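Troubleshooting log. The previous structure file for this entry was overwritten by mistake, so regenerating from the original sequence record. Sequence copied from the archived sheet and checked twice against the printout by T.R.
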Amino acid sequence: MEAGSLQRKLWRNAMTILLLVFLCICMCPAAAFAENGEIQGTIQRTLKREPLPVRGRWRRVRKRYRFVSSDGRPQRGWLKTGTRIYYLDQGGFRVTGQVRIGKKYYFFRKNGVQRFGYIKIGKATYFFDPAGHGARDSSIVVVRGVPNTAPMAEPPEDLVTVRNTALNLQFDESGAFYDNKGYQIQKATLRSFLTKALLPVGKTMYIWGGGWESGAGKGPHNGSIEATTIGVSPRWEQFFRKANKSYNFKNFRYLSHLGLDCSGYVGWVLYNTFNSVSGHGDYVMLAQNMAKTYAGWGWGTYSSAGSFRDFRPGDIMSLRGGHVYIVLGQCSDGSVVLVHSSPKGVMITGTATRRGKKKSRAVRLAVRYMKKYFPRWYRRYPDSSRGTSYLTDYSRMRWALSGNRSVLSDPDGLAEMNAGQVLSLLLGPA
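Regenerated output below.
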């Protein structure tokens, strides 16, 4: 009798659990809906609208392709297989070319894979924004090779002196300096330079080719429109907000309007330091050439890698292998706090000591400042350390901070401060 009662009790409990599970399933949405109202089922994320990977194979029907999942169910709408994203029409066939889905336009290659970035369609070139799931951005249309993202405001003639031949980039007899478009630059302070360097920190992702114009590298003008625009681009922060912890810059190569690479970042900092209007000459070039080139223009002195052990706020450091960073200051143990654009993006980092101590004063300082002043970035990308090679393998351009032929001065005395003092002055207490 007791055994039968126990068995009935277990049966009731099992049925209760099954009923609760069934109610939960019924109350939860069975599928997410795309903007065009199609049921996406298991291949559509509800919140982010990113398709989930689905296993299956393509089946050719006449000259078109239909996807059949491993469970035999027909698929429609957004589809992801591996890392490739497709869109299937009502008949389950993959679409190609520019396609309207809901109220937005997307672009798919001939093989059906979704494509991002600048795409020429007819006589116009449009930008399909990866930060917006590949939707066409109506605010960016390339006209005569120039994107309309940030109109260039030319300054009145009484504010600048224009020269037609200034590509040698050197000081004139009066100590004035002209950029590669012939505009006279506005001399600044070391504090202003480092303040500008911190503006994109914690809000700008690393983009391979970011800050470079498409096809640049051989002419005198290499910078993209952002590299010669005053202020931080809103698009950089928008893209950062949509990036996740697993961000991989290799998936966004050459989408130069979404962020900055190392040389694009330094070029942007210099432009914003020496200009108050957009559209003048740029300072973007190969990272390995920056320190030597700027010193050759008369901005400072050049030292080859391995010939020095001291670092000063504002030093521009170039690696022969292709990287560049800006020094914020040196610590008592010889480690250096620096700012650069390096995967994942523009951030403050600290080096190890020359003896290889990883938990150096610079690393601890960088962590404290990133955690306090850029918490959203730090939660996603907490790694704020770099190796000893940042001390030993880089050449240096050190600013000339006095005299008629100098573009920076130092009335605040930052050049004599250590890393902690510089950060405290620029950002506040740790």
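The first helix runs from residue 2 to 27. Archived copy saved in two places this time.
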